[in-house]
Queue: 2 jobs
Job 1
Amino acid sequence: MTLASAGERRASQQARRLSGSRKVGRISYWPFVLPALVVVSAVVVFPWAFTLWMSVSEWKVGEPYHFVGFANYLRLLHDQRFLQSIGRTLLYTVLSVVAPMVIGTLAALLFNEKMPARGLLRGIFVMPMMATPVAIALVWTMMFHPQLGVLNYLLSLIGLDPQDWVFAPDTVIASLVMVETWQWSPLVMLIVLGGLASLPADPYESARIDGANAFQRFWYLTLPMILPFLLVAMTIRMIDALKSFDIIYAITQGGPGTASETTNLYLYSVAFAYAEIGYGSAIAVLFFLLIVVLSLVLLHVRELSGRILGTTK
Amino acid sequence: MAAVTLSHVGKSYGAVGVLHGVSVDIADGEFVILVGQSGCGKSTLLRMIAGLESVTSGDISIGDRVINDLPPKDRDIAMVFQNYALYPHMTVRKNMEFGLKLRGTPRAEINEKVAHASAILGLESLMERLPRELSGGQRQRVAMGRAIVRDPQVFLFDEPLSNLDAKLRVHMRTEIKALHQRLGATVIYVTHDQIEAMTMADKIVVMHDGRIAQQGAPLDIYDRPANLFVAQFIGSPSMNILDGQFAGDGSAVFITDKGVHILLANVPAENAGRPAKIGIRPEHIMLNDSGIAARVIVTEPTGSETQLTLDVDGHELVVLIRDRVDYKPNDVLKIGLAQNHIHAFDADSGSRLTL
């Protein structure tokens, strides 16, 4: 036997051993992956695929499935109620992101300072977050009541005219945003407080020597350094606000008229009140795409800021 | 540039006093190092000069202006911190510009000053980097650059080299000293490293328990330590200290507590029989065939010199000799003490006794 052929044989033996072990590996990891795969398929993949499948059908509950291609999507482009609901949803979302972000951040700055009973005050501020949305809706509905509600009473105390709050088309969105802000500013505060706690102390001392006053220290140091935390809060808030349903449904059901009908509520009506499952599914798919695009934009911004600050690689 | 005067400066946190009547005169352009162990109050004192801590009692003046109650920005000082304290989200350039920008300095002047400082410190190629993309030494240079662009009357350094590795520390030590010579600024520098203090300072202020143990030129302090603390703190390896008392018969002899007789140059008559401690630096003990017998415990060659740890009748002595020797443990050799380099201290108060 020549040396070369001995070498070849050894190599082929090695290859066989390697492929054998790879085969064992392929068999052995399945039991670990399978449970997760089953669950994900059942709760994510299947509903998704089913929704897509329904969105290209004209299908009312109890009637046979009827494939219509992209007809539902084309119909959506001319559906004024749908287009208005998108605009309303975006308005509602912007307001429900901005107001809690501002109030939550200010609260975090306040509660980050040393003060007596700080823990207790923080606890009280966080409480709305823990309440059940439907309960909140019932309480706020009473507070919004034009004659009996406490809000108009409070306005009267400072000499302002009573408002119709959720009972008038002009003020309904702003009123609902008030509820959203009251409930979700605490979440923003918690996230920002975490960010503030992680800030290094040294740069603030050098900033004092550099001559920065309290506002400049906030503007040039604190704000950029907590930006990644603000963006996390913003992303969470945006997704929550886009898909907000319970509070709006429980307080106004989309009314007066359709003045507070967001896409989610319209989708609910189409699918479950008018039983047009196919058309409703098409709304769901488009609405999902909208959320994905907006989230991607925010994620991108967050990554950019993280790269500058060194919080993400 | 300006002189700095500390006059009876005290600091207490509630009932806890950390500085007790510290007075130091720092001349214009002088490089003064506050040195001492952790917790001796040296950093607190520096932070009080910076305006980051309030002054409980006494006065701090820069030039002829008392600055006790001035905010940091109005004191015309710049400070370099141990942890650099750079702004993590700003590039090197923005870090250096920040102080000037806040003061409303015109853009052209900012650019000029930043370019000047970065040239001095060799930072030109790093200007667009973020602090986390720099090494420790580079970050420390940026911190110094931030101080230089401000062109302050007084530079304050708070243990700036503590976070650097040994080799870089030696290098930066030289750089800081060269920088001082170049700028001619008044510098107050805090460190716990007595070698930094010895090598860089025009004047050393040794602090101990919130008080000044001694202040003076580095070699004066080294040659004539005012008390036992300074004697042991300054110098590496540190001074050998022996307990005992002066001979009662008035002869120039010190008898240690283990009965070793050490000949001194002179003992004033009033100290005869007085309990005391004597100190001798390792380099002032030599090999001497007619001297005291000593047993070798450890031999540590460093290349340029050899450090021996010896046992003399139960006293452990560290000896530094310039020769290369190859003693084995338990070898016996004879040593002699340079009489005119022996220091004596009171047994109780630790203050220096004249010999």
Job 2
Amino acid sequence: MNASTESMVLDALRTGTADVVLDRPVDDILRRGARLRRRRMSRIATAVTAASVIGAAGISLATRSPEPPPVRPAVKAWGADLVNLPPWELKEAGGRCREALRGIGISVPANARPVAADARGRVAIIIWRVDHDLAKCTLSREQGEWQVGGWGGHDWQELPPDKHYSMITLSAGSTEPQDPGSGPGFTGPLQKVSGVGQVSDAVDAVLIVVDGRTFEATVGKGLALFWMPDGISQEDLDDATVWTYDADGRVLDHYGVLD
Amino acid sequence: MRHSGVSNREFVEFYAANKDRCLRAVLASGVRSVEAEDAVAEAFARAWASWRKVRALKHPSAWVVRTAVNANISWWRKRRREVVWDRPPDSATTDGEPPSDLVAAVRRLPRRQREVVVLRYLLDLNTAATADWLGIAPGTVTAHLHHALATLRTHLVETEGTNR
């Protein structure tokens, strides 16, 4: 490939995107960032307080829990297994997902078994592992047929040694339209919130705490999968926490759901 | 506004210098036009929330783009009193209104080629920095770029032919 080709493509890219500008005042960014930081600092401050009290009593602190960890069992937040759609539905819905994913360069073989699939009402999620990608497809059943609503590929990266959970992708919906320019998130209640997190090999169970309620994710193949209850707010979602447990039921660590 | 001794002037300058190119990079990465602005704005806000960490990175603008693309928060919207799917920003789809045919062509590239084009041409990282950020060898970056350019050149030629 010669330099003129590179120059031609570069010029075309720059010319073609010259009118694409981010029209957000920096003050809005600073305010939102400060809010995020305050929330994080609040969690850390609570953890430090807990550590001080326990430390004074001469008890070793196993976790940085800001509060007593949730007690299992909790309400299951996913189907009984990783894959919960029947074969005939996987065939129909999976075929449509594969077609969509092919359009973004992710080829899911026709005989590839999903690593996870589940439905809540008219909404379904199917997930495959393809090479270094985690391919996720979301569908809704409209007039008796599955229709693909969203699809994408996510890098599969190993977790750092000291980390037990990392959010891969989170989807949410709302019955209220988002106000243009209102910033990230919805102002109205969220529906059919679904999460796909990556967990370490040490993790045997994952609990999600949102809006004061506790739900248990389904864990397997390095993933934690969960739905959240309809009606939670964007703030509830931002503040949701994830607790990871080992096979003996001990808390490994806890995280913000979006970490 | 200060974060424990960190002045916001540096961040404001970083934001002004990078906001547009980050938006273009996120669009080329496949995020829908209607959601890219929110995603990039949120990523910059997270950068400010963790500015001590982000400013120490070799390529903070690449961090913003990755954070925006990986935010992966998708939305549904109600239309005609029905809940209807809308495509999430993690979809490198051809829907929405890409700012140019060439950006749409970049979106259709295989993932690694797309990442290399975004980092090299839209974020202006050099080959070594691109390799460093992606965790691959500089030669691999060059190879991906070679293939990507061949595809994009074909697209440009075809587009010119169509327009004649």
